[in-house]
Amino acid sequence: MRKILLTKDYTAQEVADLAGCEYSLVDRYDRVYRIVRPSVLAGHGSGRHRARRYSFEDVVCMAVAVRLRRVGMKPARIKKAVKLMRDDPQLQQKWLVSDGDRVYLRNDDGSLVDLLKARQLAIALFLEPLHRIR
After folding, report:
1. How many CB atoms lie within 10 A of CB 62?
2. Are 36 and 28 in contact (CB under 8 A)?
3. Whole-angstrom distance, CA of residue 126 vs CA of residue 53
4. pLDDT tens across 55-104, in order?
5. Alpha-carbon dihedral of residues 53, 56, 59, 60, nearest 10 degrees?
6. Which secondary structure element, helix H or strand E, spans residue 83, and what is its range?
């Protein structure tokens, strides 16, 4: 595992391994839903003609997308959350929390902001323990 983390860019299979999902999900989130696209090198054609190459930020975005999918979020909402996270560098340093329908940003003071609803303040009293991304 250490060898993969030291590389400069990642194959789709390495992204799947690091994000904790199947290769087919990485492929689907790129080609079908366009949620996490390879930012280093976009592949073309079918098979292994030119392998896609992902950045570390792409790996983090895929890991977030996988976690949101596991709590039941639909692809359109996952796409919006990942886009917001990529567009705002401050979000990359915060915790994202989801109830399966909405995505919230947890501020340093513990308050939650609903990211998918024009950043309105929200209150949540029940949260599952957060686990570190592998």
Report:
1. 27
2. no
3. 38
4. 988 988 999 899 899 988 999 999 999 998 888 877 767 777 777 777 88
5. -160
6. helix 75-87
Q: Which domains does the chain have, with CATH numbers?
A: 2-122 (1.10.1660.10)
Confidence of residue 131 (pLDDT cuts 50, 70, 90): very low
The answer to whether residues 42 and 34 touch, using CB atoms and an 8 Å cutoff, is: no
Q: What's the whole-model pTM score?
A: 0.71
Q: How many CB atoms lie within 10 A of CB 57?
A: 14
The DSSP 8-state label assigned to residue 130 in this structure reads P
Which residue matches tokens 């280093």? 40
Helix, strand, or coil (residue 8): coil
Please provide residue 62's backbone torsions phi and psi, each rounded to the nearest 5 degrees. Answer: -65, -40
Asked whether 4 and 17 are in contact (CB, 8 A), the reply is: yes
If one counts every other C-beta atom within 10 angstroms of the C-beta of residue 39, the result is: 16
Query: Tell me, what amino acid is at 82?
Result: V
The residue ranking higher by pLDDT, 11 or 116, is 11
Q: What is the DSSP string of 39-76?
A: SSB--BSSTTSB--BB-HHHHHHHHHHHHHHHTT--HH
